[in-house]
Amino acid sequence: MSLTSLKISGSAYDIGFQLGCFGKKAVHQHLKPMALWQWLSSQFEQEKARTMATLVEQQYPLIWQELHGLADGLELPFSEVFMWNCRGDYVHTQSVDGCTTVLGHVTDGILVAHNEDGFPQLDGHCGLADISPAEGPGFISFVYPGSLPGHTFAVNNKGIVITINNIRPQEIPAGLPRMVLCRAALDAQSLDEAITTLSRMPRAGAFHHSLAQAGDHDLYSLEATAHGHALLNIKTHYGHANHLIAPTLAAVKQRVTASSGARQQRLDQLLSGEEGVDTRLALRLLRDTQHQDLPIYRRHPEDPDDENTLATGVFLIGHNKVDWQVYTHAETDTPDHSGTIALN
Questions:
Q1: For residue range 244-274, what is the model confidence (pLDDT) as tens digits?
Q2: Among residues 66, 89, 112, which one ends one of the domains?
Q3: Average pLDDT of 11-15?
Q4: Dihedral sign, Cα of residue 162, residue 294, residue 311, residue 109
Q5: Do 191 and 77 sit in the same domain of this protein?
Q6: Of all residues in the chain, what percent are helix, strand and coil, respectively (each to 5)?
Q7: Where is the Peptidase C45 hydrolase domain (predicted)?
Q8: Which of 28, 73, 173, 344 is the most buried (most CB within 10 A)?
Q9: How much is the pTM?
Q10: What is the CATH number of the domain that holds 228?
Q11: Is 253 found in the same domain as 138?
Q12: Packing angle between helix 47-59 and helix 61-74, nearest 10 degrees?
C-alpha cells in the first residue's frame, strides 16, 4: 500500500482539475468499467439526480465548480463524475466504502483514529492531498481518484478533524449529496459550523461523522441521515463501524453487512475493558484481525463487501495544534506521512 503526496492550490475549479489529473488513470482503468459506474451514469437525467444537481449548483457554487474541474481533469463528462460523487446517495447492492473509527479523550486532548476502507482495486492509487483553496481554509485529506475530498479523513487549518464512516439506508430521497456536505464541512471555521453543515437538510445519503477541533474540549459522534440525525458528545471513548447505532435513529431502516456488524461487536468487546485510549491502543484495535473472515483490519482480496483497508489516520487534537499521522502498513509503528496543524 502507498499514498501519493499531493500539494494543490488555486480556485475551486483549479483544485478539482488537479485532483482529476491525479486520478485520471485509475478512474479510467478501475472505476469507469464497473457496473456501479455505468448504472449511476444512466441515472443523471432522472428527476432525483437533477434535483440533487440543482441543489448543489444553487447552494454550493464553489463545490459545483470543483466538480466541473474534476470532470475536466478526468477527461470525462460532467454527468458521469457528478453521479460518481453521488454513489452513496442511491440504494445499491454494492456497499460503497466501509471504515472503522476509534475516538476518545486522552491526557493532552482528544484522539481520533480511523481505518479508511475502500475498493481493493484502488490500493496504491489514492492520495494524501494538502490543499490550499483560494477561498476557504486549507486542509489535508485522504483522497480517492475521481472523488471530492472530505468523505474520508481530514483536518483543516482551523484545527477541525473529521472522519467518515459509511451508512447504508434502505431508503434515500433526493437531497444534498452526502459527499458534497462533507466537502463543505472542510470550509468550516468552527466545530459548530461543521456540525451544522453536516446536519443540513434536505440531505440524501447518510454518513457517520467523528468531529473535534483543537482548543475545544468537545468530541462528537454524528450520525446524519435524510430522516434525522443523532449527535453524541463523547465523554470517554467510543468505536464506530459504519452502521447506525444511535437509539434515536432505530426507526431508520438500514443494511448492516456481516463485516460491519462483526467489526462493531469486536470494537465494543475490545473497548469494554479499557479505561481510556491512546495511539498505541487505537492502532492495535484498528489493526485487529482476530475474526479471520470479518476482521477490523481488512486486506483479504475476496472481502465480502469488496473493501480493503487502504490507510489508517491518527489525529491527536490539543489546545492549539493537531498532530496527524497516516499509516499504510500494519506492521510498523512508524507513520508513512505525518505533520502538525498549528493554530495561530
A1: 999 999 999 999 999 999 999 999 999 998 9
A2: 89
A3: 98
A4: positive
A5: no
A6: 30, 30, 40
A7: 109-325
A8: 73
A9: 0.97
A10: 3.60.60.10
A11: yes
A12: 120
